[in-house]
Amino acid sequence: MSDTKKPLRRSQAWFGRQDRDGFIYRSWMKNRGIPHDQFDGRPVIGICNTYSELTPCNSHFRQLAEQVKIGVWEAGGFPLEFPVMSLGETMLRPTAMLFRNLASMDVEESIRGNPIDGVVLLMGCDKTTPSLMMGAASCDLPTIGISGGPMLNGKYRGGELGSGTGVWQMSEEVRAGRMAQEEFFEAESCMHRSHGHCMTMGTASTMASMVEALGMSLPGNAAIPAVDARRNVLARESGRRIVKMVEEDLVMSKILTRKAFENAIRVNAAIGGSTNAVIHLLAIAGRIDVPLALEDWDRLGHELPCLLDLQPSGKHLMEDFYYAGGLPALIRELEGLIHQDALTVNGKTLWDNCRNAPKWNSEVIRTVEEPFKAHAGIAVLRGNLCPDGAVIKPSAATPALLKHTGRAVVFENSEHMHQRLDDESLDVDENCVLVLKNCGPKGYPGMAEAGNMPLPPKVLRKGITDMVRISDARMSGTAYGTVVLHVAPEAAAGGTLALVRDGDIVELDVEARRLHLHVSDEELAQRRAAWQPPKPPMEGGWQRLYFERVQQANLGADLDFLVGKRGAGIPKDNH
Ligand code: FES
Ligand code: MG
């Protein structure tokens, strides 16, 4: 930049200028009727909005952004809303995850390239949370997160119907011939009946809880329903608070410390959170230069109980969680298990925010002494089938299957799986292990949520509801089952998974953290010599770049060159 003296605020490198460039920076902004005094050096707050009609979970974000703006004005700041790539989980093919890192680049460059002093992140649907957190972390400005909030509980024929979870259950009922197609259609409008994101403890609710546990949002953010007036109050208060955070220079790296991530891992166990949080938190930590490893999930989380009785592991939904006291009430139960001194965006510690939080329903939020499930968290497996790790969520699995040896039934990719699964002549029974290849970061591409593959109809007809399933895929946070995920290296990167054949014996022993393929090293070496690496999914464009540079799941599946904090140094003038 041409100015020699350091500007008071970042935004003043644009708006504080008296020269030709200052004219350009201010004059075009004034076309909306902004008075001259708004450029006087007050904190400029960028509101990073993932509103999109193609992201139904975030479809109320214009209204939410207006509430944030009121708060920013009230505190003497100058709000400027901007759109970023919005990842709609239910629409985007082949999977929204393929674009998480792309959206994070949009966020990072939009923040750094613009006259922004502080950032508000509006996040909701699954990938919109990690993509914004990652991009913002690489810039490290004062930043506050606001989640869109969960939808009201789904209601169907007098009962509760949870996002995602109900689909997995009902579609198996239809396949087994126990539910009529008309009932299935009727359930569509019963499941999602208000603004907001999935109201099960799926990935969106998990990541909203992670944002709050990390200290990146005001207390209570995770569970307030999207359409509850108190969500608007939180947005407005967050708008007020971000202005103060700029004044205090409370940048993201002061909050996202190693302690904050350890707290988040523990809270993930206590809420029965999604396995997707493993990949997303590893990626966010990588962006803010906090060392975090796959094993940290097992070490910090696996002894913890799950306190929360929510679908998919339990029966309640996010609306019930909020009325029961929400995340602050749950964190209060973890008194001796969290780092109490971790700083949060309101300037207080996590413990200050939660120590007096009231709990209104002890059936929904249990205690450490009398938990909902004794062993929660994520188990990290190792073995010749996953030398760089794989994960399983024991609380969502069938206890009897956590130690199981069986014959592999192998699907080369998801098309092969769909083709073969309903074939009555498929040689499979409930003791087999279903193995799915080529659904990892490079293989799908994008690491699809294909890990909870459906069971073969002939097994379903026996009334069996779970089998051991193994893949390099992810699994929807709303899904459940004895499902081994995130096998690394993935098949498309030449992992042992690529070499598994029908009839091989696979041994899973979660207690011993072991996943072993009973095939000799010599035989595996022979099979490996015949293995052909796949071609990129496209010759050019984003998918080519992604394929070449994406890291494996155990490293957070970020692109290698995106890892790290690059700050928000002020770029050169544009004229
Ligand atoms: Fe958007 Fe579940 S599909 S949160
Ligand atoms: Mg999902």
TrEMBL record:
A GO molecular-function annotation: iron-sulfur cluster binding
UniProt domain Dihydroxy-acid/6-phosphogluconate dehydratase N-terminal: residue ranges: 42-353
InterPro entries: Dihydro-acid_dehy_C (IPR042096), ILV_EDD_C (IPR056740), ILV_EDD_N (IPR000581), IlvD/EDD_N (IPR037237), Sugar_Degrad_Dehydratases (IPR052352)
Start and end residues of each Dihydroxy-acid/6-phosphogluconate dehydratase C-terminal domain: 363-557
A Pfam entry, by short name: ILVD_EDD_N
Keyword annotations of the record: Iron, Iron-sulfur, Lyase, Metal-binding
Statement: the UniProt record of this protein carries the keyword Metal-binding: yes
Matching PANTHER family: HYPOTHETICAL DIHYDROXY-ACID DEHYDRATASE (EUROFUNG)-RELATED, HYPOTHETICAL DIHYDROXYACID DEHYDRATASE (EUROFUNG)-RELATED
Family: Belongs to the IlvD/Edd family.
Protein name: Dihydroxy-acid dehydratase
Organism: Noviherbaspirillum pedocola
Classification lineage: Bacteria, Pseudomonadati, Pseudomonadota, Betaproteobacteria, Burkholderiales
